[in-house]
Amino acid sequence: MRTLALRGGARVAVVAAEWCDAFGVVTRGRVQLELRDGEPGPVLGRDAGFWLRGTGVRALRNPGRRTARVRIVTPGARTLTCKSPHPYDGYRMMEDDMNSMNDHGGVAGTAPGRISRTHRLRGLAVTGLVATLAAMVATTLAAALAQAVGVDFEIPDGGETIPLPGFAVVTGFFSVVGIVIAAALLRWSARPAERFVWTAVSLTAISLVPPFLSGANTATITALLGLHLIPAVVMVLALARSLRTRTD
């Protein structure tokens, strides 16, 4: 068993003679598999496991900026060569190594990458829902405070006043949209935190335009702008931090 360290942007070729029957587990950061035809393969996060034999993987690459580490189990390095006529012994020793990895917090099984991905998405969802509740409460309290100081929240175009529960509902809806975007980036992007912040800031900037077009008075427009920014700050900080934690 050995550990391979990949600095940010580094690439290491997979040599068949050295990686025979190797099984790898990402213990830190993210690792992208480069396929035989040079095309980029899947990006594996922490605790994801993968076989190299017969997969067509020709190189491992670190798509991030932080150092990634891969724990590699290669039975051929201890008892066999790739041409050994008795490979069962090697697989048995690999199983022993994997059991040892389990004892030290490693992940084994038929689909460790899938298990790890599920755990990361579940953790992100929990963080997002807690942040959503916090954003709804903060926005509603801020709207109530604005009403208390004289903001009427009347929209002349529709002739209606925005009720307090309306702020909570709208905040909750768009917060859930933010969670979905964050989950999609965690699943498919090599840099989910950075992409999420950029996307969220862009959407927040767009959301500041409608208050100016509503025809409301200055106090209402100012209050609406603030009520757009409060939940945006809460959700962006919480989800971006969660994304960084789950991709380190």
TrEMBL record:
Protein keywords: Membrane, Transmembrane, Transmembrane helix
Pfam families documented for this protein: DUF6069
Domain of life of the organism encoding this protein: Bacteria
Coiled-coil region list: none
Sequence intervals crossing the membrane: 124-146, 166-188, 195-213, 219-240
The protein's name in its UniProt record: DUF6069 family protein
Organism: Streptosporangium vulgare
